[in-house]
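FIELD: query
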Amino acid sequence: MEGTEYNDRHMEMKFVIDKITNDEAYPNLANGNAVPLSDEWQQFSTVTPYSEPVMLFKYLSECNVPYSFVDYDCEGAFYPIALSYFDFSIDWFELMSATLISKLKDGVITVLFYYSEGDNPHDIDAHLSKQCNEHDIPRAQVKFISANSVANDIDYFYHIVDDELLFQYRNKKHPPGFYHEETRQKKFTALVRMHKFWRANTMASLWRGRFDADGYFAYGDEVTAGEVETDNPIEVDNYVGLRKLTDIFLSCVPFSADSMTSIEHNDHVLQVRKHYEDAYVNIVLESHMDVDQSNGVFLTEKTFKPIKNSQLFIIFGAVGSIQHLRDIGYKTFDTVINHKYDKIQNTTKRWKSAMDTTTALLSHSNNDIKQMYIACKDDIIHNQSLFHESKKNRLTKLIKDIHND
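FIELD: result
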């Protein structure tokens, strides 16, 4: 785990792991007795307390950022807990050993949560702060890495775009779609595996405009988010006929653009090349339009698929999603796509503006969209290159922020 290019050796992350099995770090606090990297190894994510293998270790290794495993007596070490789901019913300190609790109280060890989801960090902070107070644990001894951008605004919280790193890691052996100027058969790609009502509103609107024939257009019916219609962040009755249209659309699903199963669609290692190489624009329907009412951004692999595979994109997602991409170095094709929707705080109005941008773009001829694509050549190539670059600088900054806080 040596990194010859890493100059700040004193910033090296030192992790306390309760159990090492077959050279793999067994998830701290996890229940079960799974064999590392077996099918059962992945089931940690579905069993309380939802502590799972720490992908941060993989990212650090991939980027040659040094770290080490140490024992409980190493001052300044971190006790990592990676989570697939943050359960507010759990008292985290009740799950910890007396030794760990003692080290936390003495300021020797710091708990470091790593959470790849977008749940509201303010709510999580309130929960952890309350538990620290109840157990007499100094608040500074519990830190939290979140995939929600608003984490940057909270003490002892840190943001990382986890799915950029995860998709880069899991999909690294899959060749990307490269920029080319041959005529593509489809104008766009819009693929939905998991039903959510706002996604149905979006795809139904494209379907009503008969744009589905112009794209790789898919909407599955095997996987749902478990939501009900009242969970929809879009106020559908603000738009005449949208509720009825969506009901009709949902009665006609599934729509398919390939022969893959729903499980295969969720596998980051797999993808259908024509979805990216034979269409100019990706209509990204992110995981959330409203990220747990946090006012934060939560970007997933859905956004990074077109970036890796040389497509233009429009994002139906949280306010500021486009700006967040700009902030981390990506280009957003502003000369040909009007991303004004990205600044609109109201979710319903942002959705409608993104819908207007999408339909306006897709109303152009295939050749017109091709010329827009060609005009963005440098930015498309830049994005793909940036995606493939090592994220060492970002990880190094994250480590420094954690150490210096």
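FIELD: remark
Residues 120 and 294 are 5 Å apart (CA to CA).
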